[in-house]
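Researcher: We plan to redesign the surface later, but first we want a full-length starting point. Tokens attached.
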């Protein structure tokens, strides 16, 4: 067996310990005589798995009792639609455009009501987070929407926008569980787990209880009503059972390793190794305004597409894989999610140094 250092933006690296545990339980989960993949979602064994996953997530994020935790499927992109369907009572909301995912959510919201662009960093290819201290938020807006960590561009909101009393809705897909958050500042948090927590096919939605009602836009499908899932503890229909089971294991892994405070410390250490190198490199350059840099996704370029391609090719041969940047930015991107060991980042920087010397 030979494992690589996987810098993929998602689906992405998972803790090896979790994968090993899952492998050991593959044929016989805790004496049930079957794999979690094979068991009824109505069984007592599975009920314990999903209940424990929720309880552990609540513990990790310190989620208050007046918030519901939903495990749903459909891709995080489906949440771009369920947010307006469930929350756009006045059919108006504000969107802050900081990249492709925010743009997609914005475009989706326009299908259901009036979506207003409150701020944007499109003028500099989304290389920064716009000033959100005094946005043109109007009283009739139902919520303000952000993509908190921009997976493609490598920016992160370090301070949340001033929503002037309106609900804040945040896509946390690529920063989910990477550091502590104050859940009470949000009306709704959503995250596709394939970036930092588990296999694709599961979205976690954390939503304030009073927002979970039958008062949704007309024609909202049953499966897209948050209340359907909240009333049934995410077991209205067959949930993505195996994915939730892996998420549960990752929650336990985080709890065991110092929780979100602990992982933040490690993430800051890892990111500093890479950013410090980029800041003094003569060949490689970070593409993002310093104060808005993400701890999770680190894009960088040499400024020469052929050199970028050469780097990606040689890095791959050295066991440092999936470093090619998103097609809209070019260059490279190292996603250094929770499960990327610090040695992976050290190896990457060593490799970059060597490459720089060889190509000076
Ligand atoms: C990956 C990603 C999504 C989309 O997730 P899908 O599950 O592929 O629909 C949405 N938002 C952000 C920030 C992402 O990184």
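Model: Full-length starting sequence:
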């Amino acid at each position: 067996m030979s494992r690589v250092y996987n810098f993929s933006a998602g689906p992405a690296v998972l803790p090896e310990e979790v994968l090993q545990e899952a492998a050991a339980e593959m044929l016989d989960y805790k004496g049930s005589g079957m794999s979690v993949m094979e068991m009824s979602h109505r069984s007592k064994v599975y009920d314990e798995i999903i209940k424990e996953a929720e309880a552990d997530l609540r513990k990790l994020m310190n989620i208050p009792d007046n918030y519901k935790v939903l495990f749903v499927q459909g891709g995080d992109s489906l949440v771009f639609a369920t947010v307006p369907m469930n929350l756009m009572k006045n059919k108006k909301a504000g969107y802050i455009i900081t990249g492709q995912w925010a743009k997609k959510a914005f475009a989706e919201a326009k299908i259901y009501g009036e979506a207003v662009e409150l701020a944007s960093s499109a003028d500099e290819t989304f290389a920064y987070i716009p000033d959100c201290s005094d946005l043109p938020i109007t009283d009739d807006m139902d919520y303000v929407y952000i993509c908190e960590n921009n997976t493609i561009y490598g920016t992160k909101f370090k301070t949340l926008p001033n929503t002037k009393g309106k609900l804040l809705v945040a896509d946390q897909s690529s920063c989910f569980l990477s550091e502590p958050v104050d859940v009470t500042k949000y009306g709704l948090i959503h995250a596709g787990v394939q970036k930092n927590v588990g296999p694709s096919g599961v979205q976690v939605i954390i939503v304030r209880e009073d927002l979970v009602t039958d008062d949704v836009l007309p024609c909202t499908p049953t499966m897209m009503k948050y209340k359907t899932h909240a009333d049934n503890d995410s077991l209205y229909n067959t949930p993505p059972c195996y994915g939730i089971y892996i998420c549960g294991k990752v929650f336990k892994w985080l709890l065991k390793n110092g929780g979100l405070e602990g992982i933040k410390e490690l993430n800051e250490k890892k990111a500093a190794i890479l950013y410090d190198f980029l800041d003094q490199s003569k060949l490689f350059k970070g593409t993002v305004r310093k104060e808005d840099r993400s701890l999770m996704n680190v894009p960088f370029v040499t400024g020469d597409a052929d050199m970028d391609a050469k780097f990606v090719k040689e890095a791959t041969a050295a066991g440092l894989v999936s470093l090619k940047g998103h097609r809209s930015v070019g260059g490279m991107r190292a996603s250094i999610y929770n499960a990327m060991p610090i040695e992976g980042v050290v190896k990457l920087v060593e490799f970059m140094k060597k490459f720089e010397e060889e190509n000076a």
